[in-house]
Structures are given as structure tokens and as C-alpha cells.
From TrEMBL:
GO terms for biological process: glycosaminoglycan biosynthetic process. Signal peptide: none annotated. This is UDP-glucose 6-dehydrogenase. It comes from Ceratopteris richardii (Triangle waterfern). Gene3D superfamilies: NAD(P)-binding Rossmann-like Domain (3.40.50.720). GO terms for molecular function: NAD binding; UDP-glucose 6-dehydrogenase activity. InterPro entries: 6-PGluconate_DH-like_C_sf, UDP-Glc/GDP-Man_DH_C, UDP-Glc/GDP-Man_DH_C_sf, UDP-Glc/GDP-Man_DH_dimer, UDPglc_DH_euk. GO terms for cellular component: nucleus. The lineage of its organism: Eukaryota, Viridiplantae, Streptophyta, Embryophyta, Tracheophyta. It is an enzyme of class 1 (oxidoreductase). Pathway: Nucleotide-sugar biosynthesis; UDP-alpha-D-glucuronate biosynthesis; UDP-alpha-D-glucuronate from UDP-alpha-D-glucose: step 1/1. It catalyses: UDP-alpha-D-glucose + 2 NAD(+) + H2O = UDP-alpha-D-glucuronate + 2 NADH + 3 H(+). Its EC number is 1.1.1.22. Residues 96-220 form the UDP-glucose/GDP-mannose dehydrogenase C-terminal domain. It comes from the Eukaryota.
Length: 250
């Protein structure tokens, strides 16, 4: 829905509000984002797929597979929007990552969308500076260095790669993360990100200054008044990115 809203100029929050007014659905769990994470949801869906396939219910299994595939698409789409907005490359550019946990008020990073987003940006040779108030630097580096789904292995059996460390910096202050950055990606809905002094953030960044809100926690219009070029998932697009493709040309 967020992709469709962006394409048509609609506001995904208004769509979610309207859908949530139906008492059979309710307003909970309708917030658009960069993608869901956590140790349970995807695992439970894939278990359901397996059970359906074992019972010969191929069409039903394929239906549930689409939930996981759309989630992967959403994360990929976010990365492509970042790259295409920033002149079709983030190579050599500093990107601040605000939030690494899969949701606020936890240090849990299992299946967090931030891992795939960071991998996508690193794949285009971005320099990443990460801040999360609860996730340790060791955990972040371990998550970025291991293969997908290896997080549930015993720690001594988790394969490690030194490549991520070369282009990743973990800091303990949001303003330090955004200092001299070309772009900012908000990937966890921490309350403190709603209260940052974004004028201070803007003044410390390279220009033009981009901000990509994957959790819809910021006031888009207020940040545009400051001078940011803003992308917020499922929200009407900034004039800067409105006519750009969601992905750079291949």
C-alpha cells in the first residue's frame, strides 16, 4: 500500500486510518514501514508455508510466501529510493542510520530490516554511521558480518567477515552519526528520533541534505521547511524525488 500511495500521491496514514475504522480489522498493526523484523513473524509464516506444502496446498503456500517476498521487496525498494534520490549512487557518501533494533524499546536485532538496508547501501560502497540507543556495537558488527539466518546459531559457530567493519562506524549519539552525513535513514521508531533538533542535524550535514524515514516518525513538512529533501514511506513524495524512478536504471 505504501508503494501505491507514493505512486498516486496518497498518504498511507490516511489509508490506514480509514481501513482501521472497520471494526472487523481495527487500527492496530496497520502502520507502513521499511519492513517487519523480529525472530517470530517470518519464522511462523515460513512454518505455515511448510505445513501447507507438506499437505499439498501449493496455492495456499504460495499465498503466504508472498508476505515474506513483499517484506523483502519493501526493504529493497527503500534502498533503491535512497540511491536514486542521491544522484543514483551512494558510493563514498556517509549515510547515518538511526535505529538498528527491529522495533523500539528493545535491543533485539533478529531479522531487523536495518540489516538488509545496510547491506544494500554497503553494496553501493556507502560509508555508514549507525546509532541505536540499546544495541551494542559488537552486536551490530556481528549482524552485518554474518550470513542471513545465522543469528540463531551458537555464537562460536557464527561465521564472521571483516569486510563490514571497514565501512561501518557505530556511535553513541544521533548528532555524531549525522555529522557530515549526506543522508539519514530512520529505521527504528525510537521516541527520541521524534524529538531531535533537526535544525542542528541539518546544519551539520552535507548539502543537499536527505532524510529517509522508514518508520514515519518525523513531521515531513517541518523538515522540508528546514531544508531537508524528505522521503517518508507511503507519504506524498518530495518534489525532488517525485519524478525519479524508485530504482536507478540498471
Amino acid at each position: 500500500m505504501s508503494a501505491l500511495c507514493e505512486a498516486t500521491g496518497a498518504d498511507v496514514s490516511e489509508v490506514a486510518y480509514a481501513v482501521g475504522k472497520d471494526s472487523r480489522i481495527g487500527p492496530k498493526f496497520l502502520n507502513a514501514s521499511v519492513g517487519f523484523g523480529g525472530s517470530c513473524f517470518q519464522k511462523d509464516i515460513l512454518n505455515l508455508v511448510y505445513i501447507c506444502e507438506c499437505n499439498g496446498l501449493t496455492e495456499v503456500a504460495n499465498y503466504w510466501k508472498q508476505v515474506v517476498q513483499i517484506n523483502d521487496y519493501q526493504k529493497s525498494r527503500f534502498v533503491k529510493r535512497v540511491v536514486s534520490s542521491m544522484f543514483n549512487t551512494v558510493s563514498g557518501k556517509k549515510i547515518a542510520i538511526l535505529g538498528f533494533a527491529f522495533k523500539k524499546d528493545t535491543g533485539d536485532t533478529r531479522e531487523t530490516a536495518a540489516i538488509d538496508v545496510c547491506h544494500g547501501l554497503l553494496g553501493d560502497n556507502a560509508k555508514i554511521s549507525i546509532y541505536d540507543p540499546q544495541v551494542t556495537a559488537d552486536q551490530i558488527m556481528r549482524d552485518l558480518a554474518m550470513n542471513k539466518f545465522d543469528w540463531d546459531h551458537p555464537q562460536h559457530l557464527q561465521p564472521m567477515s571483516p569486510t563490514a567493519a571497514k565501512k561501518v562506524d557505530v556511535v553513541w549519539d544521533a548528532y555524531e552519526a549525522t555529522k557530515n552525513a549526506h543522508g539519514v535513514c530512520i529505521l527504528t521508531e525510537w521516541d527520541e528520533f521524534k524529538k531531535l533538533d533537526y535544525k542542528k542535524v541539518y546544519d551539520g550535514m552535507q548539502k543537499p541534505a536527505f532524510i529517509f524515514d522508514g518508520r514515519n516518525v518525523i513531521n515531513v513538512e517541518e523538515l522540508r521547511k528546514i531544508g531537508f529533501i524528505v522521503y517518508s514511506v507511503g507519504k506524498p513524495l518530495d518534489p525532488w524525488v517525485k519524478d525519479l524512478p524508485a530504482a536507478p536504471p540498471s
